[in-house]
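Researcher: Before we compare anything, I want clean individual predictions. No alignment, no superposition, just each chain on its own. First chain goes here; please echo the sequence and then give the structure tokens.
Model: Echoing the first chain and its structure:
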Amino acid sequence: MSSIISIQNLRKAYPGGFEALKGVNLEIAQGEILALLGPNGAGKTTLISTVCGITVPTAGTITVGGFDTMTDYRATRDLIGLVPQEINLEPFETVFNSVSFSRGLFGKPRNDAYINRILDQLSLGDKKDSKIMALSGGMKRRVLIAKALSHEPRVLFLDEPTAGVDVELRKDMWDIVAGLKADGVTIILTTHYIEEAEAIADRVGVINGGEILLVQDKSELMAQMGQKQLQIAIKDPVTEIPDTLSAYALARSEDGMHLTYTYDTTGERTGITTLLNDLAAAGLVMTDLQTRQSSLEDIFVGLVKETT
């Protein structure tokens, strides 16, 4: 699949020497959902702002749909919709008029049928004549998405789209994103919610300190970097792990009733069989076994720790 966004050696430095972006290279395929993860100050919002033309890069190039964001600003901006973190809407305007106004800002002809279709997709149809000030926080976020989609962009940036909303509404937002993808929209979202990336993303990117640490297919990332843990419940507590089991790097729980063995899921052998035999030889009686797959959060935390 061809790239709709191409970022090459992108840098952003501020007076005083601080570098928010340090040579970022990134290709985003048409029609995919890319989740960009990173701690506060990692460069996520700066990257989005630079691609959208809000921030001027210090060096590097960005193309959107084949157009350069610096030399073909209008062409690239027409292709992009942006949903910012902050809710900044006209409180006394109606939902319909607010979304229609955004469409007009891009020079698009009036299209009430299209605006109504967007509002219906976002469960805002029955609120179209309501004033913004009368909406809940979750509904206001839906209005932000509607405004971003008003000019029919092919790329949608969602900067922390579910920040501050409840779990139920967050899942509704995931359904909205899935529907947009089905319509062929490319979606890039930044999020602090790891489960959000696990639930809806095709690929996951991790950024820290202004640098992209990796961008990889979500399932491949889990398979290649994920680990499993075997938690072993034992009959009698142990105060220390026997020396004969030192090769397994077991972790002991505080109460001494559980031992945890971490192993690589991609290895030819897990070592579990020999571990269980050695446990019995050491006189430890097992009462239960449980396995746990490393989550995307575990992987993310591990990557960030390596660069800090």
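Researcher: Okay. Second chain, same rules.
Model: Second chain and its structure:
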Amino acid sequence: MKQIIECIPNFSEGRDPAKLAAIVAAMREVPGVFVLGQESDADHNRSVVTLAGEPEAVAEAAVRAAGRAAELIDLTRQTGAHPRIGATDVVPFVPIRGVTMQDCVALAKKAAREIWERYRIPVYLYEAAAQRPERVNLENIRRGQFEGLREEVLHNPDRAPDVGEARLHPTAGATVVGARKFLIAYNINLNTSDVAIAKRVAKTIRFSSGGLPCVKAMGVDLRARNLAQVSMNLTDFEQTSVHRVFETVKQEAGRFGVSIAGSEIVGLIPRRAIESAAEFYLQIEDFSPAQVLENRLDDALAGTDPDAQGTRKLAELAQPFLDAVAQPKSTPGGGSVAALAGALGASLGQMVASISQGKKSLAAHAGQLGKAAEEFREASRALAEAMDRDAASYESVLAARRLPQSTPEEQRRREHAIQQAFQAAVEAPLAIARRAAEVFEKLGQLEPMSGPSMLSDIRVGRGMAAAAVHGAIDNVAANLAAVTDSAFAGRARSEAQTLLSRVAEKPAAANG
């Protein structure tokens, strides 16, 4: 398969195996779809199924599953520890191979229309597919759960679905469909039945309460096992690793005299996440994923072995993005290109730091160089992800402009949505500029710790990082022109000027 996506539909049924089997059977009927796994939890009363395959086939399987679930699951009778608004509660699409995040956004919107047209189940769009900034986060959509949303949607326009009429299906509720990065559903069970402790630990570690980045958490009562659970979604395991979450929960639970009884992965987990945990706990020095047999074999079979890169033309790697930029449409545009420039600058920094770290003549800087290489790697990854985030932010502007405006109320909602979308479209390139400015400065700090032969690479990297800042700030200025919130606009312009001044400095080696 040249194109592969993953889909992880969540169903509000975890106690009746026959119902889940019937739902999975509906998905298996679609040719080209692989059911990679299924997990059920009686306390949560929820099941998670993992599909993979060609995009159109996987989307069709998810739509059919939503119809079958609507026949079998009655939310007016369903109870469980996990919040939900639908029989098929959430359907995320994840790009795996040969597919972009924007492809998955388009697929999510198509699946949403099909779910409504076939089964009259209204749909909310979330994460990268969100039509409104406040709907990026799933918890905002789920507020009030099925029972609360069922009543509120009838009289509150702000809770209306993105697809379908402003009323829930009588028994199947509503479904949330979207596109996102790979998510790890990770639960840690505490050796106590006191759910209040689990809730306090969850509040401490989740990002929304000031905890770990990219971690969503809640405390759950596992009555069947007489345990309390910290139930989590890790939305970016490269920013906050599984082992870091485990150690933090262990430490926080210990403050209450509680230890960990065990942990579990719901669904599938990337190999890289397990490798990272193994490296941490085994304290393997200079570990590389290339040392894992299966990784090296996969690279060899796919033609991406680092030692065989010379046999591939670099144009083959770059052309898909170049083609996407060249298309006669708004996204990806200048913001995504700026993010790529910053990512390339950071990657050059990682290369220089890694090569320099191995030189005996620079052994005195080995520790600093190792830290710098990791910082550049993280910056490159973050800026690469910002390419999709910037494109998605402007797609939200276009979506807001398409909202109806026949009545004064619709006009008010449309204008509010447009303003929210434009502010998000300002924040996205500002974030790119912040990160790129950091890369520019770190590359300057790298010069004294590297050999003369690396100087040209450092300067090229600084040039790319500076270009990223300038390009991103141009996008900020373009989107600010439509923002009516003067306080927001003032803060953004002030930060933009500060960021531009940071990359106006000359490289340290060229001074005086």
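Researcher: What stands out in the second chain?
Model: Confidence is low (pLDDT under 50) at residues 308-312, 507-512. Additionally, The chain has three domains: 4-179, 184-269, 313-510.
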